[in-house]
Amino acid sequence: MESTQENTEEVYLFNRNDFEKQRLNKQHELLVSLCDGNLLHPSIPKDAIGKLAEVGTGSGIWLDDIATVLGSDIESFSMKREYAGFDISAVHFPANLRPDTQYIVHDILEPFPSEFHNLYDVVHIRLMVLALKKDDIQTAAANVAALLKPGGFFQWEEIETRDLSFSPPSEITSKVKGIMRDLSMASGLTNTPSIEIERAFKELGLVDVIVEDYNSNRRPDLTSGVAEWTKAGAKAALFYAILRGQTVRNEEEARSESAELWEAYAAEIDGGVVPSLPLKMILGKKAS
Fold it and tell me: Per-residue b/e over 215-229, b at no fewer than 16 CB within 10 Å?
């Protein structure tokens, strides 16, 4: 099932290759740990989940994990569950599919086919902040909300990029943060996604909307994991950020400058600068 990719691809800063797939999978483990091991918000009743979908599923690692968790729930062994993963690209879809899971190529900015409407008890989105323009968040939320059954839950997690910090700050970390921030703003992205998402949820009529705040600054056990996460993210994104920032003449210059900057950045992190990982989980429920 194909759909246009122009809208989200033009602002996305990461490549779609094996390195990126590995980075996303490691990032998944870190984010789950940050959320106290919860793939789903504790208020979502697991025994009521029959069909669950994820939009922007990537490699499907979150979907596979939640299927495993729900499948191990003794109280719901008799329930037959179905899972669906949607993404703008099939590049990272798993080669070996679970029999209860399907993967579909679809752009979040396009309405989903009617056969998927009012179908799911839970729909999950995570980390679309670098792929969605600020003005497109409402459209994306509306398209995804259409997938929910009445009474279904919409869970969306995003890194609150405005709150990214380094302790102590340094010239190099400030430069990297500034490059990413300036390009994001020039591309029409937002550095306060939770505010935009919460507003979209309420305007769509979702009820019981809450915003949970998770931050690695309160989790010293995650310091080393966050350090590796920020180095991997910078390594993946800096080349494209510098190239699109139009401060270099060609790809060769962008590659050289980004490699030099990343080496200095990684040295700062390895030398003891502690980065933060601020995550917001926004949850809403479709009215019954």
Answer: bbbebeebeebbbbb
The span from the CA of 241 to the CA of 36, in Å, is: 32
Residues 268, 185 contacting (CB under 8 angstroms): no
Give the right CATH number for 6-162+190-219+276-285 from 3.30.420.10, 3.40.30.10, 3.40.50.150, 2.60.40.10: 3.40.50.150
Kindly list the averaged pLDDT for each block of 10 residues, start to end, along the chain of length 288. Answer: 42 57 86 97 94 96 94 65 96 90 97 98 93 95 98 98 95 94 89 97 98 97 96 90 83 94 97 97 97
* Rounded-to-integer distance, Cα 120 and Cα 149, Å: 5
Q: Say if pTM beats, i.e. exceeds, 0.85.
A: yes
Kindly state the tokens that stand for 273.
């600068």
Beta bridge partners of residue 153, listed in sequence order: 122, 285
